[in-house]
Amino acid sequence: MKFSIIILLFGCLGFVALSSFKLDLNYGKASATNRAASSDATAAQAELYQELAKPIIERRCVVCHACYDAPCQLKMSSAEGISRGANPQTVYDGARVTAATPQRLFVDASGPAEWRKRGFHPVLNERRQTAEANIKGSLLAQMLLLKQQHPLPSAKRLDDSFDLSLNRAQQCTTIEKFDNYASKQPLAGMPYGLPGLAEDEHQTLINWLASGAAMPEAVNLPETALRAVAQLEQFLNADTMKMQLSARYIYEHLFASHLYFPALAEPGQQPQFYKLMRSATAPGQPVNVIASRRPFDDPKVNRVYYRLVPVVSSIVHKTHQPYAINDELLAKWQQWFVNADYQVTSLPGYQPEIAANPLTAFAQLPVNARYRFMLERAEHTIMGYIKGPVCRGQVALNVINDHFWVYFVDPDMLNSVQLEKFYQSQQANLRLPAEDESTTLPTHWLDFAKRQGNFLRARNQFLANAVDPQRYLTPATIWDGDGTNLNASLTVFRHFDNATVIKGLIGAPPKTAWVIDYVLLERIHYLLVAGFDVHGNFGHQLMTRLYMDFLRMEGESNFLAFLPPAQRRTELADWYQNSAPELSRFLDEDINPFNQPSGISFNTDNQKAELYQLFGQHLEQVQPAEHQLSNSKLADSSMQLLQQLAGLTGLPATTLPEVTMIMIEPVDGSAPELFTLIRNSAHFNVNSLFAEEDNRDPANDNMTLVHGLLGSYPDAFWHLQETDIGKLVAAAQQISNEQDYAGLLDEFGVRRTNPNFWTFSDNINALFQQRNPVSGGWLDYNRLENR
């Protein structure tokens, strides 16, 4: 047996070696410098890429190859990503013992030659630059040709030979190994598990590849944009210590964002976006990016400058966090950070025990300024841990419920001097796991649990002494957005391993809710955004997940504090059914001891529902209308039928996907209406790290229906005429097994095998981006079901 395996191994190696020898013989040795030598694009090549090839790449390739979990790390959303190529190393690896080397585009390396040293292999030809070699030596070209030669089978559902699971084994072949790959997997051409390209699209890409695959991506900013960039850089890079500390704080909260200037954007058009980067060079000089794992790591330079770099990648919804820079916002920054009466006597260092804890690093900045900064764009602040690099976050996201509402404590509720003294006294209790950096063992878990308990007890004592419960524990405690800010309340939807956050209170009243104050909001950001390293080892990721348990329970207990003490315990017991003994002790000893009476006089037995109603009335003036079903222009009778989908519970809900995007063609021939149907999976508790299915409570699964598209990862597409809404709803209500759902898809679904899949895909992406030119982006198809 061993002898046979050895023979087979040598056979495979010989096959690969022969293939490589033939390529070298016919087209020369591969070298990244071959493409660099011919990188200057002619006008014809530039037009071929920008006008013809790039739009096809976005519509057919970027929808699967954009996030960190793009197959083989092949990110095709930019010229840099395509030139970088592919790498078999898995980014999402919860079992690695030591932290992996970051491989971030535009940060950790520059140009194909540097990426080759980091283990990336080319997908474009890097041998002699002839038309023949550019096809024969291009992995991308060969993958496209393989698909044309072996199209997708015509069955409705792909058989098990197609592994479409997220955790499937990586098949990261090289051009040298391609013949062996194609012989074993003839149906694995690109796009994988989806219909092939139309003949004209295929030929356009082949022509582009044959001509050298030039990808000119230079951004020529108009004078107005250059002035806006210079003005913001001037503000952030003022020499005073007060501004240096403030700019560091701003950067550490916006480093993952896409900044833009609304005043410069054309109406209805996607604006130019920018990344805020740390640079070793001052404004006016070329940007010299400081490549650190975290935004607060030691920059190893005497002075850090904060610079804006234009975003050249295609905008992908999963990683897109737009942040508007306008005169009103800059005036507030001036008020909070510059004009405020405080002194900065020294700048904090970058040692992990200082920099990883914002309560320590920014102790000299007024708490009110910090909190106001995050509240002003609260959706964006919370969005940070839902978007960004966490493209595959089931272990991180099983720490939250599938549907909950978020409220915020009014920043003017407590005396800021008292509050700042209290927070300063709690710095040791509010340490965060990122202090241990990216390679660690979860040995400090009990220390963090003890500190969290100490903090909660100290906080309860502080509140008991510092505030009047008749004023504090009432709706007046909740920030009302100052009467105009729509960020005053948020809804979070979890979709198993990804999530969505939107402004407003969306859907039916949920099982749980959070009330967030400054110190909780800050720790959420530094735990899950600024301090989280997607390349970290299992210990770092495990500690982050376990610590988030504390923060969730803290937000929940803040909400429960508005209920009478007895009701708090009843609700908490319902939220944490079947919990482990350690959790039960923590709930009893550290969460429950807050016994101050509520400042609300309740009139019903259902006090939680009454509290939701009171909070809703308090926030009525700042509820956005964007995703309300009333925005639909379908007939009232059609909407009454469609809304019945939101009433599905139990088995029909459990059978439906996490996120279904629906396109409905109106009777009057007007533009299609878009809706999203979201499944909210119920749990007995969300405190268990593993075996999530053991905590599922499917009998209480329910649905939320919204107008417009929510989420970045559609699991299913439905397409129907308005006249068929009743038929669709009836089919959904009658689902009792997988066959019933398959029957619904037969009539209304747009499966990944549908011959018209790409036409539908083009339409829904175009509508999404046209109707959301700032927040929209390309959807990601890595979670499309095969049902």
From TrEMBL:
The alphabetical list of record keywords is: Heme, Iron, Isomerase, Metal-binding
Which residue intervals define the domain Cytochrome c in the entry? 40-213
Stretch forming the signal peptide: none
**GO molecular function (one):** isomerase activity
Source superkingdom:
Bacteria
Pfam families assigned to the protein according to its UniProt record, in alphabetical order: CTI
This chain's protein is named Fatty acid cis/trans isomerase
